[in-house]
Amino acid sequence: MSEDEEKENIQSTLNLTEDQYKELKAAFALFDEDGDGGITKVEIAKVMQSLGLNPEESEIEAMIREFDEDGNGEIDFAEFSTMMTQKLSESTTEETIPKVFDVFDEDKKGFITDSDLMRVIDKLGEDISEEEARDFFELADEKGQGQIDYESFTKIMLAC
User: Fold this and answer.
1) From the DSSP assignment, how many helices (H) and strands (E) are in the chain?
2) Which of 52, 105, 127, 154 is most buried (CB neighbours < 10 A)?
3) DSSP symbol at 109
C-alpha cells in the first residue's frame, strides 16, 4: 500500500482530519526512535518514562499485544493511530493533559515555546529536523504568538 493510500485509509477508518493525521504522524516519530516504521516495547517504555510514567514491562507487552494486528511484536503507524485514537478517547484527559503539558513547560511559565518542544525532542533522542519541529509548532500555535498556551495544547490533545 502506498503512503497516500495508507493515509487515506487511516483518515477514513478513524475519521481523522488532515491536522489530526499530521499530529499522529509527529507523535509516532517521537516514539519511533530509530525511524524504522515500528515502535518496540523499549521505545514505548522510554517515551512513557520521559513523560513521568513508569509502566511495568507486562503493561507495555499487553499494550503491544492489544494493538499489534499483524503480530510482529511492534506497533506500526496504522496500529499506533488506532491505539492513540482509542486510548485518548478512553483516558481521563483532566488528569493526563496537565501532566503532559508540564513535561514541555518544565519551568512552569504557562506556555510551551519552540525551544521547549526541541528540548523534549532532544531528550527523547529523536531525529526530527528543525523544519519538521517548526511545522508542528506552527500548527499547534494557533494564535500565532510564538508559543502554545494550555488551551491550545488541550485542543491538540483532544483532537488526536
Assistant:
1) 9, 2
2) 105
3) -
- Among 98, 101, 61, 76, smallest CA distance to 3 is for 76
In this prediction, residue 24 carries a pLDDT of 86
131-152 burial, b at 16+ Cβ within 10 Å, e below that, comes to eebeebbeebbeeeeebbbeeb
Query: Phi, psi at residue 14, to the nearest 5°?
Result: -100, 5
What is the distance between the terminal CA atoms of the chain, rounded to a whole angstrom?
A: 23
Distance of CA 107 to the CA centre of its chain: 21
Cell numbers found for residue 105: 513547560
Parts of the chain with a pLDDT under 50: 92
Give this prediction's pTM.
0.55
